[in-house]
Amino acid sequence: xxxxKKFVFLIAILTAVAFTTRDSVSKSTSVVITAESSLFVKGTxxxxxxxxxxxxxxxxxxxxxxxxxxxxKMVFNKTALILETDCxxxxxxxxxxxxxxxxxxxxxxxxxxxxxxxxxxxxxLDVHALVNIEIAGITKSYKIPVKVKNNETLRIAGDLRIxxxxxxxEAPKKIFGLIxxxxxxxxxxxxxxxxx
Length: 196
Known about the structure:
Order of helices and strands: HEEEEEEEHEEEEE
Strand order of the largest sheet: 1-4-5-8-9-10-11-12
Structural class: mainly beta
Largest sheet: 8 strands, antiparallel, barrel
Helix content: under 10%
Number of helices: 2
Mean pLDDT: 82
Distance between the termini: 31 Å
CATH superfamily: Lipid/polyisoprenoid-binding, YceI-like
Organism: Mariniflexile gromovii
Number of strands: 12
Signal peptide: 1-18
Shape: elongated
Domain Lipid/polyisoprenoid-binding YceI-like: 65-191
Number of domains: 1
Keywords: Signal
Protein name: YceI family protein
CATH topology: Lipocalin
């Protein structure tokens, strides 16, 4: 259930902002994720589905973005999106508590997404974002296709499937082990981003 981005992805959103500049000098800016954005994690058990929604108002805006161009890629330095695990609402006290336990939130209260680089998908405004996601002290890299819409507010959307076991996470068993959570979870994000 580790959310995380589109996370994303979320972090991927930050990437598209940089496409507005085309020189190779290192650039620095800051962006704000708007209140119309959404980020949630979906999972399944052997009896039902669940969804944990991140409280968008809890983003620590503005987010600093530093990047430079390298060949046909934008390379980012120290560009991170931090998600506080206690800002997810799964729809009830018990499932929220289970979600926190799965993420080992007592020891690791944050999910960290580091934007590493983006590259434009040919003949589109869409990009591939290389993102490092840190959950429970373990970091994994993902290349995420991200859809970008550019109007007054930059809109970034994407999906990512991850495995709990990749982060050495295990869902708690309920009712003598009769209810189990699937290892695969999905992270969905739709982010509005404006330059500060």
